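FAQ: What does the model actually see?

It sees only this:
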Amino acid sequence: MIPLERVDHLSLYVRSMERAEAFYREVLGFQLHRRLPHQVLVQIGEVVIALMEDAARAPASADVIESPLGQAHVAFLVSDAALEEALDAFRARGVPTHGPVDWGDHARARARSRSRAERSRSR
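And it is asked to produce this:
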């Protein structure tokens, strides 16, 4: 097995580099990591996302928003309060949203993992 240190970055195609950079920086709080001739890298914590422009790329269908399971997507974890703030920010910018998404066992598994971690810390 190759001893990876971490994932260095993820790359996303965007229709407008300018709009995508503004969204990631102004709405999501990412910082500029590096600007290259054909991409902009933004970073939050240790996560780096390379935004690469493809103006001819068709917009994602509403199906991706309505049912992201099994489809390529990026998911961010936020508190309930931050989610309401995010939805307000998205609406103000005309960003399509849909929800809630039924994650099935995913949310329960995360809650079980969190409960196990909390129990082990209290021992």
